[in-house]
Amino acid sequence: MSEKEKLIREIKSQMLSDKSLPLRKGAHNLVFGDGDPEAEIIFIGEGPGYWEDQKGTPFVGNAGALLNQLLASVNLNRENVFITNVVHYRPPENRDPEPSELDAFRPYLDRIIEIIKPKIIVTLGRFSMAKFLPGVTISRVHGKEKQLKWEDNEIWVIPMYHPAAGLRSTDIKRQLFEDFKRIPEIQEKTRKSEEVNQGTKVQQMKLV
């Protein structure tokens, strides 16, 4: 077990024992996260739905099936990324998470991001987008990446529509597939940036 995997499991245990977390009472399961703690990419949705609550895994219903198709369209699979939400217990009747609920889960989500140290974060829906890009509308910025500083790490954030919205609108579904094409391009951009940084470090060491 890697150090990151160990730390991620510890976070999950802490959440399971945290009786103060909202939405816990009416939920069947904590829907923590799914995927590889060593991943370069984290996908962050909004909150668990019915099937996620039943199975304790994010994105396993119809929206999850579409997410799997979107991942496959850019040669990714769930085993190579990490998927989670901004709240980890199901809101009643799948309602929007309230500000107090977002605040309660925020320290845990922040810790997950801090441990994994992704190069890319893909936000799925407006609530996860607002965590990184407050004050913008998803219809204007979807698919447009932005580089920002997060806990001393440079990350690329790509806001996208939630897959559930793609199930309700063929136009949004089409836009999701188009936006997902940005992911390999951003991956290549991060690799080139790392190569430049490594080259700069080598040059600096030679000068010393």
Automatic annotation (TrEMBL):
Domain of life, source organism: Bacteria
Record's signal peptide: none
Polar residues: compositionally biased ranges: 196-208
EC class (word): hydrolase
Region entry Disordered, spans: 189-208
Recorded GO MF terms: 4 iron, 4 sulfur cluster binding; metal ion binding; uracil DNA N-glycosylase activity
Pfam family, one: UDG
Listed EC numbers: 3.2.2.27
Keywords: 4Fe-4S, DNA damage, DNA repair, Hydrolase, Iron, Iron-sulfur, Metal-binding
Family matches, as SUPFAM superfamilies: Uracil-DNA glycosylase-like (SSF52141)
Domain Uracil-DNA glycosylase-like: 32-181
Membrane-spanning ranges: none
Reaction(s) catalysed by this chain's protein: Hydrolyzes single-stranded DNA or mismatched double-stranded DNA and polynucleotides, releasing free uracil
GO biological process, one term: DNA repair
Similarity comment: Belongs to the uracil-DNA glycosylase (UDG) superfamily. Type 4 (UDGa) family.
NCBIfam families: UDG_fam4
Protein's name according to its UniProt entry: Type-4 uracil-DNA glycosylase
Organism: Candidatus Woesebacteria bacterium RIFCSPHIGHO2_02_FULL_39_13
